[in-house]
């Protein structure tokens, strides 16, 4: 197998765990629960599941097939497909640079909370609200962020098989076991039923105006004086951005991982496992958090506070809280670290390709240090900004965003990922139809070919175009 000396996975299980590791992270344990809370629970979940089938699966299959067929990362892979679409590879390579610029900040927060949770075994407790405020406002939190970034760099430097694959083969099974334990405990708390009803009882409340009318899109000023959105497009925006972020779509990661995959592996099966596995992780996260919040009367839509404020409140009151707090933050840490590794590798692989094309050696150490330096700069800005609580980088609060984190996220998740995903669908569905067919059929019949072609050509582009429209409306506060 020609992997251009960049490395390769030793086993298909390692590839799947690495790919799931890239997918299962902040998107599942931080964003999914609070976006579900904002999006009305069942309404959000229904649209999210539909998008996973008609957009998520086709894009996952396309990306790993493109990577394996080209044996290259995003930029050169797109150039191989069609020279005029090389720019889309560049867009996808830029994405992880924006994502990694805030990801390590949350990874550092999680690492700090994990060690704080260990103190609960000695009878120590902490007030969740003040503890989170201290985390945001105290510059010492940067130390934890740097430690988390260093762990990411160490694993990536070890290479594809010895670093990324070895860690993810251990971390991902452990993550799912902990998620199941947390979900079972949360669902058996007194009062958890309201959380389960919120998740699974059919309703369209999130699509209704304050007056109760179903709406396509609308805004209003909430009790805190903030502009809040409602309507179908708002829920679609929440579910669509969650899907792209959670599955690591259009970020160069899956193309890079696909380029390290052996030709004997069945791509249809792998894409299905990745999509279902990530969905299962998100649902388990919802089952671990929503019923627990309901049991202790904590509002579902609390943004970052849902994890860093609500869950410590739950653990302070839950029987066996110290044990479950330790499990939850360990789970969160594994999820963050495996995703951080995937993002960094997506950018690194593309740069290594450019060096190989220029006749230079695939210097993983040097390229990793470049990516790490950027991550340090970006996360320093994000951390010292304290989610907008500190005025340190107020000048960077562009695009109408209230904090540095939201700027990185709006550019990557809000614009680049859905735009690049749409361009990829147009390329594979219209410009070079059936491009990946031979690659998928290397190991058997392309059983979902008819469904795949219909989604990648028709339904997917329409859904992504609507997601982009809704994202732009939200970012630039456009009314309808």
Molecular structure report:
Strands 1-2 form a two-stranded antiparallel ribbon. It is mainly α. 71% of the residues lie in helices and 2% in strands. The protein contains 18 helices and 2 strands.
- Major β-sheet profile: 2 strands, antiparallel
The CATH topology turns out to be Amino acid/polyamine transporter I
Oligomer: single chain
CATH architecture: Up-down Bundle
Q: Give the integer mean of the pLDDT values.
A: 89
Total count of domains: 1
User: How many beta strands in the DSSP annotation?
Assistant: 2
| Radius of gyration computed on alpha carbons | 21 Å
| Helix content percent band | over 70%
Distinct helical segment count = 18
* Content of β-strand: under 5%
CATH uppermost class: Mainly Alpha
What is the end-to-end distance? 53 Å
Tell me the series of helices and strands, N- to C-terminal: HHHHHHHHHEEHHHHHHHHH
Short description:
The chain has helices spanning 12-23, 26-38, 42-70, 74-81, 86-118, 128-137, 141-157, 160-187, 193-200, 232-247, 253-259, 267-295, 305-317, 321-357, 364-385, 404-431, 437-440, 449-475; strands at 218-221, 227-230. With 480 residues, the chain is mainly α.
Topology:
Layout: H1 12-23, H2 26-38, H3 42-70, H4 74-81, H5 86-118, H6 128-137, H7 141-157, H8 160-187, H9 193-200, E1 218-221, E2 227-230, H10 232-247, H11 253-259, H12 267-295, H13 305-317, H14 321-357, H15 364-385, H16 404-431, H17 437-440, H18 449-475
Antiparallel strand pairs: 1-2
Helix pairs in contact: 1-8, 1-11, 1-12, 1-14, 2-3, 2-10, 2-12, 3-4, 3-10, 3-11, 3-12, 3-18, 4-5, 5-7, 5-14, 5-15, 5-16, 6-13, 7-8, 7-14, 7-15, 8-12, 8-14, 9-12, 10-16, 10-18, 11-14, 12-13, 13-14, 14-15, 16-18
